[in-house]
TrEMBL record:
Lineage: Eukaryota, Viridiplantae, Streptophyta, Embryophyta, Tracheophyta
Family: Belongs to the calycin superfamily. Lipocalin family.
Domain Lipocalin/cytosolic fatty-acid binding intervals: 12-159
GO cellular component, as recorded: cytoplasm
Region feature Disordered, mapped onto this chain: 153-173
Annotated GO biological process: lipid metabolic process; response to reactive oxygen species
Source organism of the structure: Acacia crassicarpa (northern wattle)
Pfam families on file: Lipocalin_2 (PF08212)
Classification via PANTHER family: APOLIPOPROTEIN D
Gene3D superfamilies documented for this protein: 2.40.128.20
Protein name (database record): Lipocalin/cytosolic fatty-acid binding domain-containing protein
Length: 183
Protein backbone atom coordinates (compact mmCIF):
# COMPACT_ATOMS: atom_id res chain seq x y z
CA UNK A 1 0.00 0.00 0.00
CA UNK A 2 1.41 3.37 -0.99
CA UNK A 3 2.07 5.68 1.90
CA UNK A 4 -0.01 8.82 1.92
CA UNK A 5 1.58 12.11 0.94
CA UNK A 6 3.24 13.68 3.95
CA UNK A 7 1.58 16.74 5.40
CA UNK A 8 3.89 19.70 5.53
CA UNK A 9 3.55 23.00 7.38
CA UNK A 10 2.29 25.86 5.20
CA UNK A 11 3.30 29.51 5.36
CA UNK A 12 6.28 28.94 7.65
CA UNK A 13 7.50 32.27 9.02
CA UNK A 14 11.14 31.88 8.06
CA UNK A 15 12.30 34.84 10.13
CA UNK A 16 10.74 33.38 13.29
CA UNK A 17 12.31 30.03 12.42
CA UNK A 18 15.82 31.50 12.52
CA UNK A 19 18.10 31.07 15.54
CA UNK A 20 19.23 28.08 17.52
CA UNK A 21 17.49 24.72 17.80
CA UNK A 22 18.62 21.83 20.00
CA UNK A 23 18.26 18.28 18.73
CA UNK A 24 16.03 16.39 21.15
CA UNK A 25 15.90 13.20 19.10
CA UNK A 26 16.69 11.98 15.61
CA UNK A 27 17.10 8.94 13.43
CA UNK A 28 20.83 8.16 13.59
CA UNK A 29 22.42 9.10 10.27
CA UNK A 30 25.75 8.28 8.68
CA UNK A 31 26.83 11.93 8.68
CA UNK A 32 26.75 12.40 12.43
CA UNK A 33 29.17 10.90 14.95
CA UNK A 34 27.62 7.89 16.66
CA UNK A 35 28.44 9.28 20.09
CA UNK A 36 27.48 12.90 19.33
CA UNK A 37 25.97 14.90 22.19
CA UNK A 38 24.68 18.48 22.54
CA UNK A 39 23.81 18.45 18.85
CA UNK A 40 22.26 21.69 17.65
CA UNK A 41 21.50 23.73 14.56
CA UNK A 42 21.72 27.48 14.15
CA UNK A 43 19.94 29.18 11.26
CA UNK A 44 20.61 32.72 10.01
CA UNK A 45 18.80 34.47 7.18
CA UNK A 46 21.08 35.55 4.33
CA UNK A 47 20.40 38.76 2.43
CA UNK A 48 19.40 36.77 -0.67
CA UNK A 49 16.64 34.95 1.20
CA UNK A 50 18.56 31.70 1.61
CA UNK A 51 19.42 30.41 5.09
CA UNK A 52 22.88 29.83 6.51
CA UNK A 53 22.94 26.51 8.39
CA UNK A 54 25.45 25.64 11.09
CA UNK A 55 25.15 22.12 12.53
CA UNK A 56 27.26 21.38 15.60
CA UNK A 57 27.79 18.29 17.70
CA UNK A 58 30.26 17.31 20.38
CA UNK A 59 32.00 13.94 20.45
CA UNK A 60 34.87 12.91 22.70
CA UNK A 61 34.95 16.46 24.09
CA UNK A 62 35.56 18.04 20.69
CA UNK A 63 33.19 20.23 18.74
CA UNK A 64 32.40 19.09 15.20
CA UNK A 65 30.54 21.33 12.82
CA UNK A 66 29.42 21.56 9.25
CA UNK A 67 27.94 24.52 7.40
CA UNK A 68 25.50 24.66 4.57
CA UNK A 69 22.76 26.62 2.87
CA UNK A 70 19.03 26.03 2.91
CA UNK A 71 16.53 27.35 0.37
CA UNK A 72 12.95 26.73 -0.65
CA UNK A 73 12.56 23.75 -2.98
CA UNK A 74 9.84 25.62 -4.87
CA UNK A 75 9.83 29.39 -4.30
CA UNK A 76 6.21 29.61 -5.49
CA UNK A 77 4.88 27.04 -3.02
CA UNK A 78 3.62 27.93 0.47
CA UNK A 79 4.77 24.54 1.77
CA UNK A 80 7.74 24.34 4.15
CA UNK A 81 9.79 22.08 1.89
CA UNK A 82 13.40 23.16 1.94
CA UNK A 83 16.57 21.87 0.39
CA UNK A 84 19.80 21.96 2.38
CA UNK A 85 23.13 21.87 0.58
CA UNK A 86 26.36 20.87 2.31
CA UNK A 87 29.77 20.43 0.72
CA UNK A 88 31.63 17.25 1.39
CA UNK A 89 34.18 17.12 2.79
CA UNK A 90 33.72 20.54 4.43
CA UNK A 91 37.31 21.72 3.99
CA UNK A 92 37.36 20.78 0.30
CA UNK A 93 34.11 22.06 -1.16
CA UNK A 94 33.89 19.74 -4.11
CA UNK A 95 30.86 17.49 -3.81
CA UNK A 96 27.65 19.24 -2.90
CA UNK A 97 25.32 16.98 -0.99
CA UNK A 98 21.73 18.15 -1.09
CA UNK A 99 19.09 16.87 1.26
CA UNK A 100 15.41 17.55 1.81
CA UNK A 101 14.24 19.34 4.93
CA UNK A 102 10.47 19.25 5.36
CA UNK A 103 8.88 20.95 8.35
CA UNK A 104 6.11 18.54 9.35
CA UNK A 105 4.92 20.27 12.48
CA UNK A 106 5.70 23.43 14.41
CA UNK A 107 3.91 24.95 17.38
CA UNK A 108 2.44 28.46 17.22
CA UNK A 109 5.24 29.90 19.34
CA UNK A 110 7.99 28.34 17.21
CA UNK A 111 9.42 26.50 20.24
CA UNK A 112 9.53 22.93 18.94
CA UNK A 113 9.45 21.34 15.53
CA UNK A 114 9.26 18.01 13.74
CA UNK A 115 11.41 17.80 10.61
CA UNK A 116 11.44 14.97 8.11
CA UNK A 117 11.94 14.29 4.41
CA UNK A 118 10.17 12.31 1.68
CA UNK A 119 12.06 9.01 1.95
CA UNK A 120 11.30 8.85 5.72
CA UNK A 121 14.91 7.83 6.38
CA UNK A 122 15.63 10.93 8.42
CA UNK A 123 13.65 12.54 11.21
CA UNK A 124 14.49 15.23 13.73
CA UNK A 125 12.75 16.63 16.78
CA UNK A 126 14.19 20.05 17.58
CA UNK A 127 13.47 22.47 20.40
CA UNK A 128 14.53 26.00 21.40
CA UNK A 129 15.55 24.62 24.79
CA UNK A 130 17.77 21.66 25.62
CA UNK A 131 14.81 19.71 27.02
CA UNK A 132 11.31 19.08 25.78
CA UNK A 133 8.34 18.09 27.94
CA UNK A 134 7.59 14.39 27.68
CA UNK A 135 3.98 15.11 26.72
CA UNK A 136 4.99 17.27 23.76
CA UNK A 137 7.70 14.81 22.77
CA UNK A 138 5.15 11.99 22.70
CA UNK A 139 2.75 14.10 20.65
CA UNK A 140 5.48 14.76 18.05
CA UNK A 141 6.41 11.06 17.95
CA UNK A 142 2.74 10.21 17.41
CA UNK A 143 2.60 12.79 14.63
CA UNK A 144 5.65 11.24 12.95
CA UNK A 145 4.06 7.82 13.21
CA UNK A 146 0.93 9.15 11.45
CA UNK A 147 3.17 10.41 8.64
CA UNK A 148 4.54 6.91 8.10
CA UNK A 149 7.80 7.03 10.06
CA UNK A 150 9.21 4.03 11.90
CA UNK A 151 9.53 5.83 15.23
CA UNK A 152 11.29 2.88 16.86
CA UNK A 153 14.45 4.25 15.19
CA UNK A 154 14.27 7.54 17.12
CA UNK A 155 17.32 8.06 19.29
CA UNK A 156 17.30 10.71 22.04
CA UNK A 157 20.23 13.12 21.88
CA UNK A 158 21.95 13.78 25.21
CA UNK A 159 21.92 17.54 25.93
CA UNK A 160 23.72 19.20 28.82
CA UNK A 161 22.37 22.13 30.77
CA UNK A 162 23.72 24.71 30.28
CA UNK A 163 24.78 23.86 26.72
CA UNK A 164 28.50 24.07 25.88
CA UNK A 165 30.00 27.28 24.59
CA UNK A 166 30.64 27.46 20.89
CA UNK A 167 34.39 27.87 21.00
CA UNK A 168 35.52 24.40 22.04
CA UNK A 169 38.41 22.87 20.06
CA UNK A 170 37.35 21.96 16.55
CA UNK A 171 37.73 18.59 14.91
CA UNK A 172 36.92 20.28 11.63
CA UNK A 173 35.23 17.98 9.22
CA UNK A 174 37.28 14.87 9.96
CA UNK A 175 34.21 13.21 11.50
CA UNK A 176 32.47 13.37 8.13
CA UNK A 177 35.16 11.32 6.51
CA UNK A 178 35.41 8.94 9.45
CA UNK A 179 31.68 8.45 9.68
CA UNK A 180 31.44 7.79 5.95
CA UNK A 181 33.75 4.86 6.41
CA UNK A 182 32.01 3.77 9.59
CA UNK A 183 35.04 4.41 11.80
Amino acid sequence: MAKKEMEVVRNLDVERYMGRWYEIASFPSFFQPKNGVNTRATYKLNSDGTVHVLNETWSNGKRDSIEGTAYKADPKSDEAKLKVKFYLPPFLPIIPVTGNYWVLYIDNDYQYVLVGEPTRKYLWILCRRTHLDEEIYNMLVERAKEEGYDVSKLHKTPQSDPPPEGDAPQDKGIWWIRSLFGK
